[in-house]
Automatic annotation (TrEMBL):
It comes from Pseudochelatococcus lubricantis. This is Dihydrolipoyl dehydrogenase. Pfam families: Pyr_redox_2 (PF07992), Pyr_redox_dim (PF02852). Residues 8-327 form the FAD/NAD(P)-binding domain. Belongs to the class-I pyridine nucleotide-disulfide oxidoreductase family. InterPro entries: Class-I_Pyr_Nuc-Dis_Oxidored (IPR050151), FAD/NAD-bd_sf (IPR036188), FAD/NAD-binding_dom (IPR023753), FAD/NAD-linked_Rdtase_dimer_sf (IPR016156), Lipoamide_DH (IPR006258), Pyr_nuc-diS_OxRdtase (IPR001100), Pyr_nucl-diS_OxRdtase_dimer (IPR004099), Pyr_OxRdtase_I_AS (IPR012999). It catalyses: N(6)-[(R)-dihydrolipoyl]-L-lysyl-[protein] + NAD(+) = N(6)-[(R)-lipoyl]-L-lysyl-[protein] + NADH + H(+). The active site is a redox-active disulfide bond. Keywords: Disulfide bond, FAD, Flavoprotein, NAD, Oxidoreductase, Redox-active center. Its EC number is 1.8.1.4. Residues 346-455 form the Pyridine nucleotide-disulphide oxidoreductase dimerisation domain. SUPFAM superfamilies: FAD/NAD(P)-binding domain, FAD/NAD-linked reductases, dimerisation (C-terminal) domain. Binds 1 FAD per subunit. It comes from the Bacteria.
Length: 465
Protein backbone atom coordinates (compact mmCIF):
# COMPACT_ATOMS: atom_id res chain seq x y z
CA UNK A 1 0.00 0.00 0.00
CA UNK A 2 1.18 3.47 -0.94
CA UNK A 3 1.26 6.58 1.20
CA UNK A 4 -2.09 8.15 2.02
CA UNK A 5 -3.28 10.64 -0.59
CA UNK A 6 -4.71 13.99 0.44
CA UNK A 7 -6.61 16.04 -2.11
CA UNK A 8 -9.09 18.86 -2.45
CA UNK A 9 -11.66 16.81 -4.44
CA UNK A 10 -12.29 13.08 -4.60
CA UNK A 11 -14.66 11.68 -7.23
CA UNK A 12 -15.97 8.12 -6.81
CA UNK A 13 -16.87 6.52 -10.15
CA UNK A 14 -15.59 7.53 -13.60
CA UNK A 15 -18.77 7.31 -15.68
CA UNK A 16 -19.96 10.34 -17.64
CA UNK A 17 -20.88 12.05 -14.36
CA UNK A 18 -17.64 11.38 -12.52
CA UNK A 19 -15.14 11.86 -15.31
CA UNK A 20 -16.72 15.17 -16.42
CA UNK A 21 -16.60 16.41 -12.81
CA UNK A 22 -12.93 15.49 -12.55
CA UNK A 23 -11.92 16.98 -15.92
CA UNK A 24 -13.72 20.28 -15.25
CA UNK A 25 -12.36 20.48 -11.69
CA UNK A 26 -8.86 19.79 -12.96
CA UNK A 27 -9.22 22.50 -15.62
CA UNK A 28 -10.15 24.94 -12.86
CA UNK A 29 -7.03 24.07 -10.89
CA UNK A 30 -8.74 21.93 -8.24
CA UNK A 31 -6.43 19.17 -7.00
CA UNK A 32 -8.57 16.13 -7.94
CA UNK A 33 -8.44 12.33 -7.54
CA UNK A 34 -10.89 9.98 -9.28
CA UNK A 35 -11.45 6.37 -8.21
CA UNK A 36 -12.85 3.80 -10.66
CA UNK A 37 -13.28 0.08 -10.09
CA UNK A 38 -13.54 -0.82 -13.78
CA UNK A 39 -12.64 1.33 -16.80
CA UNK A 40 -12.89 5.10 -17.03
CA UNK A 41 -15.97 5.95 -19.06
CA UNK A 42 -18.36 3.98 -16.86
CA UNK A 43 -21.54 2.25 -17.94
CA UNK A 44 -22.23 4.64 -20.80
CA UNK A 45 -18.98 4.23 -22.61
CA UNK A 46 -18.18 0.60 -21.80
CA UNK A 47 -21.51 -1.28 -21.61
CA UNK A 48 -24.23 1.29 -22.38
CA UNK A 49 -24.75 4.18 -24.80
CA UNK A 50 -21.75 3.71 -27.06
CA UNK A 51 -21.67 -0.09 -27.52
CA UNK A 52 -25.45 -0.22 -27.98
CA UNK A 53 -25.30 2.42 -30.72
CA UNK A 54 -22.50 0.50 -32.43
CA UNK A 55 -24.60 -2.69 -32.46
CA UNK A 56 -27.68 -0.76 -33.62
CA UNK A 57 -25.72 0.78 -36.48
CA UNK A 58 -24.28 -2.56 -37.61
CA UNK A 59 -27.80 -4.06 -37.54
CA UNK A 60 -29.14 -1.14 -39.61
CA UNK A 61 -26.43 -1.69 -42.22
CA UNK A 62 -27.26 -5.39 -42.32
CA UNK A 63 -30.98 -4.73 -42.59
CA UNK A 64 -30.48 -2.19 -45.37
CA UNK A 65 -28.72 -4.78 -47.52
CA UNK A 66 -31.19 -7.50 -46.50
CA UNK A 67 -34.07 -5.28 -47.66
CA UNK A 68 -32.32 -4.61 -50.96
CA UNK A 69 -31.70 -8.33 -51.40
CA UNK A 70 -35.36 -9.10 -50.68
CA UNK A 71 -36.37 -6.70 -53.43
CA UNK A 72 -38.07 -4.50 -50.78
CA UNK A 73 -36.86 -1.24 -52.25
CA UNK A 74 -38.11 1.33 -54.67
CA UNK A 75 -34.61 2.31 -55.81
CA UNK A 76 -34.16 -0.41 -58.40
CA UNK A 77 -31.22 -1.86 -56.52
CA UNK A 78 -30.57 -5.59 -56.40
CA UNK A 79 -28.19 -7.13 -53.86
CA UNK A 80 -27.10 -10.48 -52.48
CA UNK A 81 -28.37 -11.64 -49.10
CA UNK A 82 -25.91 -10.36 -46.46
CA UNK A 83 -24.25 -12.44 -43.77
CA UNK A 84 -22.83 -11.26 -40.49
CA UNK A 85 -19.93 -12.43 -38.37
CA UNK A 86 -21.13 -11.04 -35.05
CA UNK A 87 -17.80 -11.81 -33.40
CA UNK A 88 -16.20 -9.33 -35.82
CA UNK A 89 -18.90 -6.75 -35.13
CA UNK A 90 -18.25 -7.08 -31.39
CA UNK A 91 -14.52 -6.74 -31.99
CA UNK A 92 -15.17 -3.50 -33.92
CA UNK A 93 -17.40 -2.30 -31.06
CA UNK A 94 -14.69 -3.18 -28.51
CA UNK A 95 -12.15 -1.18 -30.50
CA UNK A 96 -14.39 1.90 -30.39
CA UNK A 97 -14.88 1.42 -26.65
CA UNK A 98 -11.18 1.09 -25.94
CA UNK A 99 -10.38 4.14 -28.08
CA UNK A 100 -12.85 6.13 -26.01
CA UNK A 101 -11.60 4.62 -22.72
CA UNK A 102 -8.07 5.78 -23.59
CA UNK A 103 -9.40 9.13 -24.76
CA UNK A 104 -11.08 9.77 -21.41
CA UNK A 105 -7.95 8.64 -19.52
CA UNK A 106 -5.88 11.07 -21.62
CA UNK A 107 -8.29 13.94 -20.93
CA UNK A 108 -8.12 13.22 -17.18
CA UNK A 109 -4.35 13.20 -17.35
CA UNK A 110 -4.29 16.47 -19.31
CA UNK A 111 -6.44 18.04 -16.57
CA UNK A 112 -3.89 16.73 -14.02
CA UNK A 113 -6.41 14.42 -12.37
CA UNK A 114 -4.98 11.44 -10.51
CA UNK A 115 -6.72 8.16 -11.39
CA UNK A 116 -6.79 5.44 -8.72
CA UNK A 117 -8.04 2.06 -9.95
CA UNK A 118 -9.97 0.05 -7.38
CA UNK A 119 -13.19 -0.08 -5.37
CA UNK A 120 -13.76 2.86 -3.03
CA UNK A 121 -15.41 2.61 0.37
CA UNK A 122 -16.09 5.42 2.82
CA UNK A 123 -14.34 5.17 6.17
CA UNK A 124 -15.85 8.49 7.24
CA UNK A 125 -17.23 11.56 5.47
CA UNK A 126 -13.78 12.75 4.42
CA UNK A 127 -11.86 9.48 4.10
CA UNK A 128 -12.16 6.70 1.57
CA UNK A 129 -10.32 3.37 1.44
CA UNK A 130 -9.68 2.04 -2.07
CA UNK A 131 -9.10 -1.69 -2.61
CA UNK A 132 -6.50 -1.71 -5.37
CA UNK A 133 -4.55 -4.60 -6.91
CA UNK A 134 -1.65 -3.84 -4.61
CA UNK A 135 -3.57 -3.25 -1.38
CA UNK A 136 -5.57 -0.55 0.35
CA UNK A 137 -5.03 3.06 -0.62
CA UNK A 138 -6.39 5.72 1.75
CA UNK A 139 -7.60 8.93 0.14
CA UNK A 140 -8.55 11.98 2.22
CA UNK A 141 -10.45 14.84 0.62
CA UNK A 142 -12.10 18.13 1.57
CA UNK A 143 -14.97 17.41 -0.83
CA UNK A 144 -16.28 14.12 -2.21
CA UNK A 145 -18.53 13.52 -5.23
CA UNK A 146 -20.43 10.23 -5.36
CA UNK A 147 -20.96 9.18 -8.99
CA UNK A 148 -21.42 5.44 -8.58
CA UNK A 149 -24.05 5.14 -11.31
CA UNK A 150 -26.52 2.33 -11.82
CA UNK A 151 -26.73 -1.39 -12.54
CA UNK A 152 -29.29 -3.66 -14.25
CA UNK A 153 -32.22 -4.77 -12.10
CA UNK A 154 -32.29 -8.54 -11.63
CA UNK A 155 -35.53 -10.51 -11.43
CA UNK A 156 -35.37 -12.85 -8.43
CA UNK A 157 -37.00 -15.70 -10.40
CA UNK A 158 -34.74 -15.18 -13.43
CA UNK A 159 -31.30 -14.45 -12.00
CA UNK A 160 -28.57 -13.40 -14.43
CA UNK A 161 -26.33 -16.25 -15.55
CA UNK A 162 -26.29 -18.84 -18.34
CA UNK A 163 -28.92 -18.00 -20.93
CA UNK A 164 -30.46 -15.23 -18.79
CA UNK A 165 -28.57 -12.09 -19.71
CA UNK A 166 -28.53 -8.36 -19.05
CA UNK A 167 -27.77 -5.61 -21.57
CA UNK A 168 -24.09 -6.04 -20.69
CA UNK A 169 -23.91 -9.60 -22.04
CA UNK A 170 -26.26 -8.76 -24.94
CA UNK A 171 -23.67 -6.26 -26.13
CA UNK A 172 -20.98 -8.93 -26.29
CA UNK A 173 -22.80 -11.91 -27.86
CA UNK A 174 -20.68 -13.41 -30.60
CA UNK A 175 -23.58 -15.30 -32.22
CA UNK A 176 -27.01 -14.01 -33.15
CA UNK A 177 -29.49 -15.96 -30.99
CA UNK A 178 -32.17 -17.75 -33.04
CA UNK A 179 -34.88 -16.97 -30.51
CA UNK A 180 -34.50 -14.02 -28.17
CA UNK A 181 -37.01 -13.27 -25.42
CA UNK A 182 -36.83 -9.80 -23.91
CA UNK A 183 -38.43 -9.00 -20.57
CA UNK A 184 -39.14 -5.27 -20.45
CA UNK A 185 -40.26 -3.06 -23.33
CA UNK A 186 -38.43 0.08 -22.24
CA UNK A 187 -35.86 1.83 -24.37
CA UNK A 188 -32.96 -0.52 -23.62
CA UNK A 189 -34.97 -3.66 -24.39
CA UNK A 190 -36.44 -2.25 -27.57
CA UNK A 191 -33.19 -0.76 -28.89
CA UNK A 192 -31.47 -4.12 -28.48
CA UNK A 193 -34.54 -6.09 -29.60
CA UNK A 194 -34.77 -4.09 -32.82
CA UNK A 195 -31.09 -4.64 -33.53
CA UNK A 196 -31.28 -8.40 -32.99
CA UNK A 197 -34.51 -8.67 -34.99
CA UNK A 198 -32.73 -6.98 -37.91
CA UNK A 199 -29.85 -9.41 -37.52
CA UNK A 200 -32.26 -12.34 -37.82
CA UNK A 201 -33.32 -13.27 -34.27
CA UNK A 202 -36.94 -14.15 -33.69
CA UNK A 203 -37.68 -11.64 -30.94
CA UNK A 204 -40.49 -11.70 -28.37
CA UNK A 205 -40.87 -8.69 -26.08
CA UNK A 206 -42.75 -9.17 -22.81
CA UNK A 207 -43.98 -5.91 -21.27
CA UNK A 208 -46.08 -5.65 -18.10
CA UNK A 209 -47.57 -2.25 -18.96
CA UNK A 210 -50.38 -1.78 -21.45
CA UNK A 211 -47.96 -0.55 -24.10
CA UNK A 212 -44.27 -0.40 -24.91
CA UNK A 213 -42.18 2.63 -23.96
CA UNK A 214 -44.77 3.75 -21.41
CA UNK A 215 -42.85 6.97 -20.66
CA UNK A 216 -43.75 8.33 -24.09
CA UNK A 217 -47.30 9.02 -25.28
CA UNK A 218 -48.95 6.58 -27.69
CA UNK A 219 -48.77 9.01 -30.63
CA UNK A 220 -44.97 8.90 -30.40
CA UNK A 221 -44.68 5.15 -29.99
CA UNK A 222 -47.06 4.08 -32.77
CA UNK A 223 -44.48 4.32 -35.59
CA UNK A 224 -42.12 2.18 -33.46
CA UNK A 225 -44.85 -0.43 -32.90
CA UNK A 226 -45.61 -0.53 -36.61
CA UNK A 227 -41.94 -1.08 -37.44
CA UNK A 228 -41.58 -3.83 -34.82
CA UNK A 229 -44.53 -5.58 -36.42
CA UNK A 230 -42.88 -5.40 -39.84
CA UNK A 231 -39.72 -6.83 -38.31
CA UNK A 232 -41.86 -9.76 -37.06
CA UNK A 233 -41.18 -8.91 -33.43
CA UNK A 234 -43.87 -10.33 -31.16
CA UNK A 235 -44.83 -7.76 -28.54
CA UNK A 236 -46.83 -9.07 -25.58
CA UNK A 237 -48.12 -6.12 -23.56
CA UNK A 238 -50.00 -6.41 -20.27
CA UNK A 239 -47.92 -9.55 -19.78
CA UNK A 240 -45.64 -10.49 -16.89
CA UNK A 241 -42.73 -12.91 -16.81
CA UNK A 242 -43.28 -15.45 -14.05
CA UNK A 243 -40.36 -17.87 -14.24
CA UNK A 244 -39.40 -20.97 -16.20
CA UNK A 245 -40.81 -24.45 -16.53
CA UNK A 246 -38.85 -27.68 -16.10
CA UNK A 247 -37.56 -27.59 -19.66
CA UNK A 248 -36.36 -24.00 -19.31
CA UNK A 249 -39.19 -22.38 -21.24
CA UNK A 250 -40.11 -18.88 -20.14
CA UNK A 251 -43.50 -18.68 -18.42
CA UNK A 252 -45.47 -15.50 -18.97
CA UNK A 253 -48.86 -14.49 -17.61
CA UNK A 254 -51.24 -12.37 -19.65
CA UNK A 255 -53.67 -9.77 -18.29
CA UNK A 256 -56.44 -12.40 -18.26
CA UNK A 257 -54.36 -14.71 -16.06
CA UNK A 258 -53.53 -17.28 -18.73
CA UNK A 259 -49.98 -18.59 -18.80
CA UNK A 260 -48.01 -19.03 -22.01
CA UNK A 261 -44.66 -20.73 -22.56
CA UNK A 262 -41.98 -19.17 -24.70
CA UNK A 263 -38.98 -21.10 -25.97
CA UNK A 264 -35.89 -18.92 -26.20
CA UNK A 265 -32.15 -19.37 -26.68
CA UNK A 266 -31.48 -16.23 -24.66
CA UNK A 267 -33.64 -14.34 -22.19
CA UNK A 268 -32.63 -10.70 -22.04
CA UNK A 269 -33.88 -8.98 -18.88
CA UNK A 270 -34.21 -5.21 -19.27
CA UNK A 271 -36.66 -4.30 -16.54
CA UNK A 272 -34.86 -1.17 -15.44
CA UNK A 273 -31.73 0.02 -13.70
CA UNK A 274 -31.09 0.49 -10.00
CA UNK A 275 -28.94 3.22 -8.51
CA UNK A 276 -25.73 1.86 -6.97
CA UNK A 277 -26.32 2.99 -3.38
CA UNK A 278 -24.66 -0.04 -1.76
CA UNK A 279 -21.14 -1.40 -1.70
CA UNK A 280 -19.32 1.89 -1.04
CA UNK A 281 -19.93 2.32 2.67
CA UNK A 282 -23.08 4.41 2.69
CA UNK A 283 -23.71 2.95 6.14
CA UNK A 284 -20.71 4.92 7.44
CA UNK A 285 -22.47 8.16 6.47
CA UNK A 286 -25.81 9.78 7.23
CA UNK A 287 -27.16 10.46 3.75
CA UNK A 288 -30.84 11.18 3.24
CA UNK A 289 -32.53 9.12 0.55
CA UNK A 290 -35.16 10.14 -1.98
CA UNK A 291 -36.88 6.80 -2.58
CA UNK A 292 -34.23 4.50 -3.98
CA UNK A 293 -31.94 7.42 -4.95
CA UNK A 294 -29.57 9.65 -2.94
CA UNK A 295 -31.27 12.95 -2.11
CA UNK A 296 -29.53 16.01 -3.50
CA UNK A 297 -30.37 19.73 -3.62
CA UNK A 298 -30.18 22.20 -6.53
CA UNK A 299 -26.39 22.20 -6.18
CA UNK A 300 -26.26 18.38 -6.14
CA UNK A 301 -25.11 18.48 -2.51
CA UNK A 302 -26.34 15.58 -0.38
CA UNK A 303 -27.68 15.96 3.15
CA UNK A 304 -24.03 16.00 4.36
CA UNK A 305 -22.01 19.19 3.75
CA UNK A 306 -19.11 18.66 1.40
CA UNK A 307 -20.50 15.42 -0.06
CA UNK A 308 -22.10 15.78 -3.47
CA UNK A 309 -23.80 13.17 -5.65
CA UNK A 310 -24.53 13.21 -9.39
CA UNK A 311 -25.78 11.02 -12.20
CA UNK A 312 -27.83 7.84 -12.09
CA UNK A 313 -27.40 7.44 -8.33
CA UNK A 314 -29.41 10.68 -7.82
CA UNK A 315 -32.58 10.13 -9.83
CA UNK A 316 -34.44 10.15 -13.09
CA UNK A 317 -33.92 10.51 -15.93
CA UNK A 318 -30.96 8.14 -15.68
CA UNK A 319 -29.17 9.48 -18.74
CA UNK A 320 -25.56 10.22 -19.53
CA UNK A 321 -26.03 13.87 -20.53
CA UNK A 322 -27.83 14.63 -17.25
CA UNK A 323 -24.91 13.11 -15.32
CA UNK A 324 -22.43 15.16 -17.37
CA UNK A 325 -24.31 18.44 -16.87
CA UNK A 326 -24.51 17.81 -13.13
CA UNK A 327 -20.81 16.92 -13.03
CA UNK A 328 -19.74 20.11 -14.77
CA UNK A 329 -21.88 22.14 -12.40
CA UNK A 330 -20.51 20.47 -9.26
CA UNK A 331 -16.90 20.94 -10.41
CA UNK A 332 -17.55 24.66 -10.83
CA UNK A 333 -19.23 24.89 -7.43
CA UNK A 334 -16.24 23.18 -5.81
CA UNK A 335 -13.96 25.69 -7.58
CA UNK A 336 -15.95 28.52 -5.98
CA UNK A 337 -18.32 29.48 -8.81
CA UNK A 338 -21.93 30.35 -8.06
CA UNK A 339 -23.90 27.69 -9.87
CA UNK A 340 -27.13 25.80 -9.39
CA UNK A 341 -29.33 23.56 -11.50
CA UNK A 342 -31.35 25.82 -13.80
CA UNK A 343 -31.79 23.64 -16.87
CA UNK A 344 -35.03 23.97 -18.79
CA UNK A 345 -35.11 20.47 -20.22
CA UNK A 346 -33.20 17.20 -20.46
CA UNK A 347 -33.63 15.56 -23.87
CA UNK A 348 -34.51 11.88 -23.98
CA UNK A 349 -33.91 9.75 -27.04
CA UNK A 350 -34.98 6.25 -27.83
CA UNK A 351 -32.71 4.84 -30.55
CA UNK A 352 -35.31 2.46 -31.94
CA UNK A 353 -36.38 2.40 -35.59
CA UNK A 354 -37.71 5.04 -36.05
CA UNK A 355 -36.05 7.06 -33.31
CA UNK A 356 -38.01 9.02 -30.70
CA UNK A 357 -36.82 12.36 -29.34
CA UNK A 358 -38.53 14.19 -26.51
CA UNK A 359 -37.49 17.49 -24.96
CA UNK A 360 -39.59 19.31 -22.39
CA UNK A 361 -43.32 18.77 -21.97
CA UNK A 362 -45.57 16.61 -24.10
CA UNK A 363 -49.16 17.82 -24.65
CA UNK A 364 -50.32 15.48 -21.84
CA UNK A 365 -47.65 16.77 -19.46
CA UNK A 366 -48.52 20.39 -20.25
CA UNK A 367 -52.17 19.61 -19.53
CA UNK A 368 -51.30 17.80 -16.29
CA UNK A 369 -49.23 20.83 -15.23
CA UNK A 370 -52.27 23.02 -15.80
CA UNK A 371 -50.65 24.89 -18.70
CA UNK A 372 -52.83 26.22 -21.47
CA UNK A 373 -51.04 25.15 -24.58
CA UNK A 374 -51.15 25.03 -28.36
CA UNK A 375 -49.88 21.96 -30.20
CA UNK A 376 -48.71 21.70 -33.80
CA UNK A 377 -47.70 18.52 -35.62
CA UNK A 378 -45.92 18.28 -38.96
CA UNK A 379 -45.67 14.83 -40.56
CA UNK A 380 -42.63 13.65 -42.51
CA UNK A 381 -44.99 12.60 -45.33
CA UNK A 382 -45.04 16.31 -46.23
CA UNK A 383 -41.25 16.74 -45.96
CA UNK A 384 -39.32 16.39 -49.20
CA UNK A 385 -36.08 15.19 -47.67
CA UNK A 386 -37.85 12.44 -45.71
CA UNK A 387 -39.39 11.18 -48.96
CA UNK A 388 -35.98 11.12 -50.66
CA UNK A 389 -34.71 9.02 -47.76
CA UNK A 390 -37.67 6.68 -48.00
CA UNK A 391 -38.33 7.58 -44.34
CA UNK A 392 -41.75 9.14 -44.21
CA UNK A 393 -43.19 7.54 -41.07
CA UNK A 394 -43.13 10.04 -38.20
CA UNK A 395 -43.56 13.71 -37.37
CA UNK A 396 -42.34 16.67 -35.34
CA UNK A 397 -44.63 18.06 -32.66
CA UNK A 398 -44.30 21.41 -30.92
CA UNK A 399 -46.06 22.32 -27.66
CA UNK A 400 -46.16 26.01 -26.71
CA UNK A 401 -47.85 28.24 -24.18
CA UNK A 402 -51.14 29.52 -25.54
CA UNK A 403 -50.62 33.07 -24.21
CA UNK A 404 -47.05 34.07 -25.13
CA UNK A 405 -46.10 31.18 -27.46
CA UNK A 406 -43.00 30.21 -25.43
CA UNK A 407 -42.13 26.64 -26.37
CA UNK A 408 -42.83 24.11 -23.59
CA UNK A 409 -41.71 20.99 -25.40
CA UNK A 410 -40.79 19.43 -28.73
CA UNK A 411 -41.12 15.76 -29.63
CA UNK A 412 -40.42 13.87 -32.80
CA UNK A 413 -40.39 10.37 -34.14
CA UNK A 414 -38.65 9.48 -37.37
CA UNK A 415 -35.73 7.73 -38.95
CA UNK A 416 -32.38 9.21 -37.94
CA UNK A 417 -33.91 12.19 -36.17
CA UNK A 418 -31.81 11.86 -33.00
CA UNK A 419 -29.51 14.56 -34.41
CA UNK A 420 -32.44 16.99 -34.31
CA UNK A 421 -32.44 16.81 -30.48
CA UNK A 422 -29.79 19.54 -30.37
CA UNK A 423 -32.06 22.06 -32.13
CA UNK A 424 -35.00 21.11 -29.90
CA UNK A 425 -32.90 21.51 -26.74
CA UNK A 426 -31.52 24.86 -27.86
CA UNK A 427 -35.03 26.18 -28.49
CA UNK A 428 -36.12 25.23 -24.98
CA UNK A 429 -32.97 26.42 -23.24
CA UNK A 430 -33.15 29.81 -25.02
CA UNK A 431 -36.82 30.20 -24.12
CA UNK A 432 -37.71 30.37 -27.81
CA UNK A 433 -41.21 31.35 -28.88
CA UNK A 434 -43.01 29.78 -31.83
CA UNK A 435 -42.25 32.92 -33.85
CA UNK A 436 -38.48 32.44 -33.23
CA UNK A 437 -38.54 28.92 -34.70
CA UNK A 438 -40.89 29.93 -37.51
CA UNK A 439 -38.66 32.90 -38.34
CA UNK A 440 -35.43 30.90 -38.48
CA UNK A 441 -34.43 30.03 -42.03
CA UNK A 442 -34.10 26.24 -42.06
CA UNK A 443 -31.92 24.72 -44.76
CA UNK A 444 -33.79 22.96 -47.57
CA UNK A 445 -34.19 20.08 -48.09
CA UNK A 446 -33.72 18.73 -44.55
CA UNK A 447 -35.87 16.84 -42.09
CA UNK A 448 -35.25 19.76 -39.73
CA UNK A 449 -37.66 21.84 -41.79
CA UNK A 450 -40.39 19.81 -40.12
CA UNK A 451 -39.59 21.70 -36.89
CA UNK A 452 -40.12 25.06 -38.57
CA UNK A 453 -43.30 23.82 -40.22
CA UNK A 454 -44.61 22.40 -36.93
CA UNK A 455 -44.07 25.85 -35.34
CA UNK A 456 -45.78 27.53 -38.30
CA UNK A 457 -48.62 25.06 -38.06
CA UNK A 458 -49.07 25.81 -34.36
CA UNK A 459 -49.40 29.46 -35.38
CA UNK A 460 -51.96 28.40 -37.98
CA UNK A 461 -49.84 29.32 -40.99
CA UNK A 462 -47.99 26.25 -42.27
CA UNK A 463 -46.81 26.58 -45.85
CA UNK A 464 -46.35 22.96 -46.89
CA UNK A 465 -49.46 21.50 -45.29
P1 LIG B 1 -22.10 5.12 -14.59
O1 LIG B 1 -21.86 5.37 -16.02
O2 LIG B 1 -22.89 3.93 -14.20
O3 LIG B 1 -20.68 5.07 -13.92
C1 LIG B 1 -20.49 4.76 -12.58
C2 LIG B 1 -19.09 4.23 -12.41
O4 LIG B 1 -18.81 4.14 -11.03
C3 LIG B 1 -18.90 2.81 -12.98
O5 LIG B 1 -17.85 2.84 -13.91
C4 LIG B 1 -18.57 1.96 -11.76
O6 LIG B 1 -17.59 0.97 -12.03
C5 LIG B 1 -18.02 2.99 -10.80
N1 LIG B 1 -18.18 2.64 -9.40
C6 LIG B 1 -19.32 2.32 -8.74
N2 LIG B 1 -19.06 2.07 -7.45
C7 LIG B 1 -17.73 2.24 -7.29
C8 LIG B 1 -16.85 2.12 -6.19
N3 LIG B 1 -17.31 1.80 -4.97
N4 LIG B 1 -15.55 2.35 -6.37
C9 LIG B 1 -15.07 2.69 -7.60
N5 LIG B 1 -15.86 2.82 -8.68
C10 LIG B 1 -17.16 2.59 -8.52
N6 LIG B 1 -27.89 7.07 -21.62
C11 LIG B 1 -28.00 8.02 -22.56
O7 LIG B 1 -27.99 9.21 -22.22
N7 LIG B 1 -28.10 7.69 -23.89
C12 LIG B 1 -28.12 6.41 -24.32
O8 LIG B 1 -28.21 6.15 -25.52
C13 LIG B 1 -28.00 5.38 -23.35
N8 LIG B 1 -27.99 4.08 -23.72
C14 LIG B 1 -27.81 3.12 -22.77
C15 LIG B 1 -27.78 1.80 -23.17
C16 LIG B 1 -27.60 0.79 -22.25
C17 LIG B 1 -27.54 -0.63 -22.71
C18 LIG B 1 -27.44 1.13 -20.87
C19 LIG B 1 -27.21 0.07 -19.86
C20 LIG B 1 -27.47 2.45 -20.46
C21 LIG B 1 -27.67 3.46 -21.39
N9 LIG B 1 -27.74 4.80 -21.02
C22 LIG B 1 -27.89 5.77 -21.98
C23 LIG B 1 -27.66 5.22 -19.60
C24 LIG B 1 -26.26 5.74 -19.26
O9 LIG B 1 -25.34 4.70 -19.48
C25 LIG B 1 -26.21 6.22 -17.81
O10 LIG B 1 -27.21 7.19 -17.59
C26 LIG B 1 -24.87 6.84 -17.47
O11 LIG B 1 -23.82 5.93 -17.67
C27 LIG B 1 -24.86 7.34 -16.02
O12 LIG B 1 -23.62 7.88 -15.72
P2 LIG B 1 -23.06 7.88 -14.23
O13 LIG B 1 -21.77 8.64 -14.29
O14 LIG B 1 -24.09 8.34 -13.28
O15 LIG B 1 -22.80 6.34 -13.85
Amino acid sequence: TGKDITCRLLVIGAGPGGYVTAIRAGQLGVDTVIVEGRKVGGTCLTIGCIPSKALIHAAEEFDRVAQLAAGNNPFGIAAELPTIDLARTIQWKDEIVSRLNSGVAALLKKARVKIVTGRARFVDGRTVAVETDVGTQIVRAETVVIATGSAPVELPFLPFGGDVISSTEALSLTRVPDRLAIIGGGYIGLELGTAFAKLGSRVTVVEAAERILPQYDAELTQPVSRRLKRLDVTVLTGTKARGRDGSGKLLVEGADGTTTKIAADRILVTVGRRPVTEGWGREELALDMDGRFLRVDAKCETSMRGIYAIGDVTGEPMLAHRAMAQGEMVAEIVAGHRRQWDRQAIPAICFTDPEIVSVGMSPDEARAAGRESKVGVFPFTANGRALTKHAEDGFVRVVARADNHVVLGIQAVGQGISEMAAAFGLALEMGARLEDIAGTIHAHPTQGEALQEAALRTLGRAIHM
